[in-house]
Every structure is written in structure tokens, then in C-alpha cells.
Amino acid sequence: MRRGDNATAGQQAKRSRVNERESENRVVTGGARGTWLCIAACAAASLFGGCAGGGNPSGRPAPGVPSPSAAAWSEIGRSVEGRPIEAISLGAGPRRVLIIGGIHGDETEGTRHVDALVDDLRRDAASGETAEFTLVVIRQGNPDGAARGTRENARGVDLNRNWPARNFAPSAANGPAALSEPETRAMHGVLLDFRPGVVLVLHASHNGPFVNFDGDGGRLADAFAQAAGAGGARWRVVPSMGYPTPGSLGSWFGVDGRGPILTIEFRRGDGGDEAREALCAGVRGALRDLRRR
Ligand SMILES: [Zn+2]
User: Fold this and answer.
1) CA of 156 to the centre of ligand 1 (A)
2) Quick one: pLDDT at residue 81?
3) The predicted structure's pLDDT at residue 241
4) Which three-class secondary structure state does DSSP give residue 201?
């Protein structure tokens, strides 16, 4: 899958399915409803705490709300250095949303709050508030970079330049070929199996906080920014990053595939409570917007 390859998604899927390593790591879904067969059950996230903060009574389920489901983190693949890449699926509705908690390892400001976000989304799913959705969250797509404090993976490849977009450009920094990295293959496999209608990806930037979008994501970006900014820093919507992003997930899913995708850029250095609240409020705002359509 090199630059200029116009293979259909189906052809790409076939190719990816003969990739032995990816097959081993595949998350199996059961059609549009996205029923998961967990390959390796991991410890479930804490049921309490969440975006309202640990110990805050307002963050706990209201009386009468059904217990959150027992959905647990599953391994969807392994990094270059063998670290697990984990994902969780919440709900069983027909509208599929994928949230990628991190892809650049040193951009931790939003990523560190993914478990809190999952706690809140778990409660929303259990209460029926998000019944029309199946939500899949990838906790951290670049665990080696996160452990090393680097943007790239352990081989020095930028995992957000390694997707089979038409504008993929092979290089040492982007990888010798699209999907050359096991982390990208693991996330790509989830995208092919789960077939999300919407993708949200967490990043951080010195110019943050802002939301960039590709595909038909403008209205969704507005909804996220408005909700995320309600309690603190103003979030801007930025239609263009202002520089080329060959082989990015946004190029593949949003530009080539025309799917709505939000690149959510927290402000570097601001990863405290306000970032946690912005993440949870922003995602919930985006879901509210999707429900209205
Ligand atoms: Zn980034």
C-alpha cells in the first residue's frame, strides 16, 4: 500500500487479513452492532472516579441507575517493544464512534484522562443515555512512545504519518510503507472491523486547545469545542492544521474516506483537572450533537 495506491477499502481489508501478525491481534466484531469477542480480558477500569474526580459524589451513578456493564479492556495488538495496546467497547447501539486516546506518545495532556472518560461513558451507557451508540475507546495507540516520552514509536516512526492515505510519503520518519508499524496495524484493524461512523483522536499542541477536523466534521468540531470550553479555556475550531500531514489518520479516514474525524488538541502543559473536564464534556457534547441528527 504505497503512495498513489487507490485500492478500495475491501481490497485493503483483504490484504490486511493476510497479515499474520494483524490476524493474531484482531478484535472480532459481530457486524454492525460491534459485539466484541475479547481476545484477552484485562482489568476493568474503575467504575468510580470519572470526570467529576475521585470521591466527588456527583461523579457516582445516581440511585436507580443500572450497574455499569462489565465491559473490560482487551488487547488489540502489541507495540514494537511488546507493550499491549488496549481497547474497550461500550454499548451496543447502531451508531459507531471510535475514540483514540493517544497516537503521539509525548502528548499526554488529554490522554492521561482516558480512563476517567471511559468511566463516564460507561455510566452513560449503563443509564441508557447513549443507547444508540456503540463506543470503542483505544486507550493509547503508542504505548512505547508514551513510556519513552516521544512523539514517535520505538522505531522512530510517527504513527500519525503511517496510514494508507493517498498522500502517504515513505520516509524514515513516516515508515517505509503505510502500516509498517504494529501499532498502526492494530488501530487500522479496529477501524476495518468496527467501521466507525465518527473518529475522535486525542493530541496536544503548544497552540491548543483547539479542534481540527477532516471529512464532514465541522459541525461536530463546533459541538465538541463549545462543550469542552464551557468550564474553562476557550476551545477554537481550526479547519486546517496549517501544514501538510501526509499519511495521517485524518488524511486516510477523513480526506480519502470522507468520514468525520476530530483531531482534538489539548494545550501542552495543561493536563490537569480542567483538561479532564474538557475531554469528558467535549465528548459528551459531540455525542449529543450526533444524537440530534
Ligand atoms: Zn499529535
Assistant:
1) 14
2) 98
3) 85
4) strand
Helix (H) / strand (E) element for 127: namely: helix 114-127
Q: How far is the CA of 231 from the centre of ligand 1 (A)?
A: 24
Contacts of 164 (CB under 8 A, 6+ apart): 1, 5, 7, 12, 178, 179, 188, 247, 252
CA of 212 to the centre of ligand 1 (A): 11
Cα 185 to ligand 1 centre (Å) = 18
Query: Whole-model pTM?
Result: 0.80
Judge whether residue 293 has pLDDT over 60. Answer: yes
Is the peptide bond prior to 246 cis by the omega test (within 30 degrees of 0)? no
| Three cell numbers, residue 56 | 466527588
Strands (E), 194-289: 198-205, 210-214, 236-238, 261-267
For 9-44+70-291, CATH number? 3.40.630.10
Q: Nearest-5° angle of CA 231, CA 234, CA 240?
A: 140
In this structure, of 35-44, 78-87, 173-182, 254-263, the range with the lowest mean pLDDT score is 35-44
Indicate the pLDDT class of residue 5, thresholds 50, 70 and 90.
very low
How many whole angstroms from 86 Cα to the centroid of ligand 1?
19
Q: Give the Cα separation of 148 and 126 in Å (integer).
A: 36
Query: What are φ and ψ of residue 64, in 5° steps?
Result: 90, -15
